[in-house]
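Objective 1.3, modelling of assemblies. Example input:
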Amino acid sequence: MASVHDFDRRWIFLIMGLLVVGLVAAGISAPMPVSEYVDSYFATIDKLPEGSIVMVSADFDPASAAELLPMYTGTIHHLLAKKMRIVNVCTWPAAPPYTASRFAEIAPMYDAVYGEDWVELGFLPGDDVAMGTIGQSLRSAYPRETKNNMAYDDVPLLRDCGDSMGNIELLITMSAGYPGILEWIAQVGGRYEIELLAGTTAVQTPDLFAFYPSQLSGFLGAATGATQYLQLVDDVAIDGSVTADKETQQSRMLVQTWAHYFMILLIIVGNVIYFTGRKSS
Amino acid sequence: MFLALQDVASAPWFSLDLTGTPDISGAILYCFFTLAVFSFLYKDNPFYKLAEHVFVGLGTAYFTLQYYDEGILQPVYEYLFGEGGVIEKMETSGIVEIGGYSVDPVMALVFRGIAGLLAVMLVMRLFAPNSWMPRLPLAVMVGVYAALKMTGETQSKLVLFVGNMFKDPITNSNLLSWSELTAQPSWRIENWEAFFVFSKIVFFVGLLSALTHFIFTYRRTKVLAGISKVGVITLMITFGAMFGFTVLGRIALLIERVDEMKSYTASAYSLGPAPAAGQDPGVLSLMLTPPILISVIIIAVLALGIGIKKDGRANA
Amino acid sequence: MIAPPIAGLLDMPHQSLAGLVQALSGLGELVGQGLARINLIAAQAVTQSADEGAGESMVDSLWAWLDRIKEGNGDPGAGLQAWADTEKLPTLISIVVFGILMFIYQRQAKAGKEINIRRIAGLDALDEAIGRATEMGRPVLYVPGIDEIKEIQTIYSMMILRHVAQKTAEYGTDLIVPVRDSVVMTFAEEAVKSGCMDAGRPDAFVKDNVRYLSNEQFAYCAGVAGIMAREKPAANIMLGMFFAESLILAETGFMSGAIQVAGTAKQHQLPFFVAACDYTIIGEEYFAVTAYLTKEPGLVGTIRAGDFTKIIGTALIVLGVVLATVYAETPGLTWHDVILRLYGIDK
Amino acid sequence: MKRELPILLTVLCGLGITMAFFSSSAGDPDDLPLGWTKAVNSELLAWALVFFSVAFILGISNLVRISLKTISSRGEDWPYKAVMLIVLFGYLGIGLMEIHQQRYGFFGSTEDAVVGIAGQGERAMRDWVYFKVFVPLQATMFSLLAFFIASAAFRAFRARSLESTLLLTAGAVIMLGQVPGGDELTFGYAGRALAFTMTYINGAGQKAIIIGATLGVLATGLRIVLGIERSYLSE
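Predicted structure (tokens):
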């Protein structure tokens, strides 16, 4: 029996690759039950009155877009469908192109007007310090918006925002790591008594249980959360605009299940090889 | 063909419009760089090297631009000379607010001037590597950030953190996430009051023993070593659980990659002749789409490369 | 209500699991009841003392006194409130107390009191790794984490780098340090230079071996993976703040056949280092590295101060848990407020 | 003097930031006796950001110097280094032009009528390269983890000792509990075990690591701010 160290791990890579490619190509999908966290994320947005100002912070980059972009897209659809007004900020330098392209695609569907229904403020460096600044004074954090380089007070939506967080009803963050949801809770959530929602990656999700529901009104955890949320958003978004995204997410969950089985099989095989190898030697 | 599920009417060769159908030249680049990075799994090879060097160049440039804009233009140029900047305030004898505190504009100019001077000293490293001058801005940075982290982390991760632990005292069941966990359909646990108490005890025993593991300078008596052992067990279960929990997120990344590749197998991206309207594009058309074409090329080159030279540098 | 613990075990196989869980619950309930009993006794004792009047009035006057200090005599701009953020006082007290402890133990250690640090396997492995690289005539790779200098782990990594550079200079082994950030690069250059100086071999410093790659996380990661695959370092030392790239680095390093020592205080990445590296320096052990390597009294004294703080902390946690438990069972008690508020809890 | 000045600066800046952290923020800083510390705090952070940004010159020159050396000596992989430099300066050039065009307008365009290089949107070219090259590279590099996590599990999850058995069991149970199928397969027990382990055992382990590490941060930070620790500045 070959010892563990002689085994070429590239076989594992190959099988894992083929498994995922095969299942994705097959594209089977099935709906998922919706968990409480997701339900409450959805409900928190849904219950806000028309025209409320919501701050959405994109705190991710392409690396985590796989997990967070579906949530971000769904959230924008949801907010615009409910006629909310969105102030978009980023604390990660690689996020602005994503937000710009999402808005460019989604806003026309709902006839949203730039500067009135949504505004992009762009990237602010400084990590948690930047968040603190946003909380203290949005105007001094962003003297100008980023898309058309207009001064703060020339933008109707920002004028309505004023200077404090007081006029902002809700803060939603798509958080891939540091800085992210934990920093928003510390810098803004705790100080200004603003309601917080978050979408996070799988790695971060366990950290959030402790904050729900007292400091966090709801969250979308990993691919599971995104799938469940898109199922809900599909009903409110403009005719079927997120249906394709939803089905993609659903089929991805099935691939996940099989990939997990494969991982467990690997562990079992690894142990069998280890023990048989040890006995024979 | 089962791969070409969604079909796009037509894709332009090059388009700067990022919201419409992706362009073919972009699709080729996209697929090439994706597959080139994946080829590293087989072994280090020219495709990966190319991708790596492009990535390093591009990544550096992207960040440099972001920080040029946000770290030099905004806090120096715009701050001093821009609309409503310090210079303008000096002429109108206004007041500059720094962190909410009113400062004379001349002072503000002097402060930022010192920053500029120190920044120049930092760049002096290029010309005089052994000079003492660059140490001054470095010293400022260390002082600022060390103090920021020391105070901030002690507050959030020590004082408040330890304080918050008592917010879920052992016997009070509605304060911790237990009952909330039961609502997750796949993560349900019956709301047994006593099991809850038991869990809390597990938590505190785990926490205290793991903390004990990090005691370094007191003599390891049998008791201390025993508690530390329990701590190690807690840590190992923690690591195993976190490892398992991360799998979901990591595989999601791979699935998304494969999904993206799949979307480029639509016949609109095919480099072959366009099919007549309403006709099945056929296998050849599919084979000529960027993902499949490029992967065939990469695999062929790598396979040939092995046949020609066995330089013993494969990373098995 | 809890079912009889044993009954479940006799049922169907998967129900027997439920039985096991319930049996454990039964145990928990016993403990819980015991605690509740203790609570009750404690509560009665406290209520009695409160009835006697001494406790309550003392607490009341204490609060009144504290409020006076906090708010002054009603003037705005007077009192403690105008000077300090009163919510952050516990943090200030913690830092000051820790500082005092640090000074005491540093003095003790410098005065010659012997304080031993327990063995940390990962740190003994540092020498082994450098030694092996020397034997094989291949370089040592030192990855100082990927965070900027604003992270204390990165500053600390620079201090360790100095020792590693000293060792490699003594052995005459190449040391490659890829860095993600320009500021860290200047620190790393200084650290390696000083390390070579410490070893008495300033000529061992090779400027090109401290390499800035890219500020982009995964571009940096791709670059380091390239170095591992091509220059085949015999030892990879990864100490500092790591994020998702930890496993890519560790697995690529393993595939290139290097001996790997990793250490970080970032709890999220430790599982991957534990799984993929030969030795892992876990959490706080990371901050004991320089003290362990140099045995310098000042540093050892700092570690001792940390240990002492942990012991106090453990005691406080135990006390706090007991108090909070008592408090939850018997609302209306007053003197707990004092201690609970010390922990930063408002009721 | 040359030796003491940096340490003095570190201590002064450190104390300034620390004071600002603890000074009162109840009310307008102008009215508070220690309000000026907020200005010190804000100004020092701006300084650090400026230094950080300016330091890119150092990093890039290091990259360029090493690459040029390789290229001129026709060292290993020199063509790749050349490609890297072309990409680096090409993208920098495009970006600088677009930023200045957007902000200050040149090449005939005014600030109001922002026209990108290709005439579509203010950062069109930059974003095109971003989405066509940067995104696939970053996302794919990250997704390599899916493979590495499998091989790491295969190698490390062996029942060698008590510790590794626990690691392996916890990992496997959590993996089962995470996906809907795995949970059903175990009659929902994997999901419950997941909830229990993540909340209580994982919670305890993580908190212990965080508390310990923060003590380390406190000790190191305090040594730096008080000027006791100097080894990072080649003292």
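Helices of chain D lie at 4-22, 36-54, 56-72, 78-103, 124-156, 162-178, 180-185, 189-225.
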